[in-house]
Each structure stands twice: as structure tokens, then as C-alpha cells.
């Protein structure tokens, strides 16, 4: 293929997997050249990209993680080689389980080949598993939350390409995982149980760091998307009460700032109104208490 038409390249210097010592060359995405044409921002703060006439459909998210092609250890680039012996032992012991999962859901994948939707979605699925065994100073809860929402997005993309596949169910699983992880993350950010400075870009997508405000907003979005399906009406109302408090923190004075751009405040207001409408509907469905 013409070099000018390539989306990615391989790093010249090799990366050595700390788990299995396999040596490989990390794939990076080229910047510029019209490869990415920014489209609309979704309600989940995902940036869509329009199809390029020159490069076709490009998914920058699929390059976000480093994955060992041999043992399927997956992590964000800055964490990949920054790992302690105890973590290595745990992740190495579960190599067969990771490979079995990839075979079960994808029929096998080759991470030596150029990244696509399948390997991109799989990379985040693997990261959710691997970060479960990382220590607190790596801020694993946040990285599990971030990997979960990105996995949900990419598996949704796959399900649209192949509606008959199980990818839609896998996407639903990761949306639930993201919801529970973001709710847990808010408590952690309040208590300082994990270092926020170890997170870096809070995403949730790669084009903009929405910071703490983005975490609050996305938690509320996921509460509406996932928490509204809670079968227990009392628990559901509790979830939405929390959700309104998250959004109230974002409202503040209602004025825009660097951390609260108008785009986020507008989305927050719309979401707040939607939550109030849903709560009103549920209250009407609750039968009145019987009189003595």
C-alpha cells in the first residue's frame, strides 16, 4: 500500500513484554494528513469521526493500548513496562485464560497484524482483566472504567457491522461494567484511595480530556442508561437521586469555564431535565398508599 495511504506505522525500537519477554514493535497511528475528520460528540462524550474519502473509516481508539501478541497482556503505554513482580506473576498465571477468552469471542486474533475493530475491542477487553491485578498506585479502577466504556463503544460498532454476532451482548456487558466502575470511581476520587495523578488523560475518548467534570457527567449518563433498568424501584430511585447530585455539582453557577465548557453544560442541563421527567413518570406509576 502507498505509504501516504497508511493509517499506522511500527515503532523502530522494540517493546519487550514484561510478562513473557516477547519482543514486538508497537503500532502507532499517523497524525495529520486528513486521516481524522472530527464529527459530532455523542451524549457519552465519544467523538465520532466522519469517513475519509482517502482513508475510509478510521477508529483512533483501537491504538490506545499496548498488547503483547504472545501472551495478550494489555495496558496503556505508560503502564505497560511499569509493573511490579507480584503483578507480573498474577498476570502470567492467567495467560491461558486470556487466550481462551479471545478464542471464544473472536475465534483467535493476531496482534502482530494492523489494528482494526476486532483487535481494538479485544485490547480493551483484555485491559479490563489485566488492570484487575494492578496495584492501587496505578489507579486501576479508573483504567478499568475507561477501558470498559471504550470496549462498550467498539463492541457496539462491531455489532452494527454484524448484527447476528454476540458482540451486542458483549457491549451491554461492558456498559454495565463501566457503570459500576464509574460509580465506584467517584467514591475513590473523594477519598483519595487511588492517585488521580496516575490517570493522566481522563478521557473518556482520546480527543479531549474532560477531567473530573467529565467523570461526573459520564457517571450520570450511565446511570440513566444502565441504572434505569434496575428492577428494584427503591434502588432505582436512589441511583437517580445520586445522579441528580452529580449533575448539580456540574451546574454550579451555570457559567462556563475551562473545566465546564458550554458544550458540557448544555448536555448536563438536557440530562438533568431528562432525569426529572423519568422520576416524575415513575412516581406516577407508584400506587398511592392504602388508607387505614
- Per DSSP, the total helix count is 9
Report how far the terminal alpha carbons are from each other.
80 Å
Given helix and strand content, the structural type is: mainly alpha
The residue fraction in helices comes out at 40-55%
Shape annotation: globular
- Stretches where pLDDT is under 50 for at least 5 consecutive residues are none
Oligomer status = single chain
What topology, given as strand order, has the largest sheet?
1-4
What is the topological layout?
Layout: E1 8-10, E2 15-16, E3 23-24, E4 27-29, E5 37-41, E6 47-50, E7 65-67, E8 74-76, H1 77-80, H2 85-93, H3 95-106, H4 117-131, H5 140-161, H6 167-191, H7 211-225, H8 233-251, H9 262-285
Antiparallel strand pairs: 1-4, 2-3, 5-6, 7-8
Helix pairs in contact: 4-5, 5-6, 6-7, 7-8, 7-9, 8-9
Amino acid at each position: 500500500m502507498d505509504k501516504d495511504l497508511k493509517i499506522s506505522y511500527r515503532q523502530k525500537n522494540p517493546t519487550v513484554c514484561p510478562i513473557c519477554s516477547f519482543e514486538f514493535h508497537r503500532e502507532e497511528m499517523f497524525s495529520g494528513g486528513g486521516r481524522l475528520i472530527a464529527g459530532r460528540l455523542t451524549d457519552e462524550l465519544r467523538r465520532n469521526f466522519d469517513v475519509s474519502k482517502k482513508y475510509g473509516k478510521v477508529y483512533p481508539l483501537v491504538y490506545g493500548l499496548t498488547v503483547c501478541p504472545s501472551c495478550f497482556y494489555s495496558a496503556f503505554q505508560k503502564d505497560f513496562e511499569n509493573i511490579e513482580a507480584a503483578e507480573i506473576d498474577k498476570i502470567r498465571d492467567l495467560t491461558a485464560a486470556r487466550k481462551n477468552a479471545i478464542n471464544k469471542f473472536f475465534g483467535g486474533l493476531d496482534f502482530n497484524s494492523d489494528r482494526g475493530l476486532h483487535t481494538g475491542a479485544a485490547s480493551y477487553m483484555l485491559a479490563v482483566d489485566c488492570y484487575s491485578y494492578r496495584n492501587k498506585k496505578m489507579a486501576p479502577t479508573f483504567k478499568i472504567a475507561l477501558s470498559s466504556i471504550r470496549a462498550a463503544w467498539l463492541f457496539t460498532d462491531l455489532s452494527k457491522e454484524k448484527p447476528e454476532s454476540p458482540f451486542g451482548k458483549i457491549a451491554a456487558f461492558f456498559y454495565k461494567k463501566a457503570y459500576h466502575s464509574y460509580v465506584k470511581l467517584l467514591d475513590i476520587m473523594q477519598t483519595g484511595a487511588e492517585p488521580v495523578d496516575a490517570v493522566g488523560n481522563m478521557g473518556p475518548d482520546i480527543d479531549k480530556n474532560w477531567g473530573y467534570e467529565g467523570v461526573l457527567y459520564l457517571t450520570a449518563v450511565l446511570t440513566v442508561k444502565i441504572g434505569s433498568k434496575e428492577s428494584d424501584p427503591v434502588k432505582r430511585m436512589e441511583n437517580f437521586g445520586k445522579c441528580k447530585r452529580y449533575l448539580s455539582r456540574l451546574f454550579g453557577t451555570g457559567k462556563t469555564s475551562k473545566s465546564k465548557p458550554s458544550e458540557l453544560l448544555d448536555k448536563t442541563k438536557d440530562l438533568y431535565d431528562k432525569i426529572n421527567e423519568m422520576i416524575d413518570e415513575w412516581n406516577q406509576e407508584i400506587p398511592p398508599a392504602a388508607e387505614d
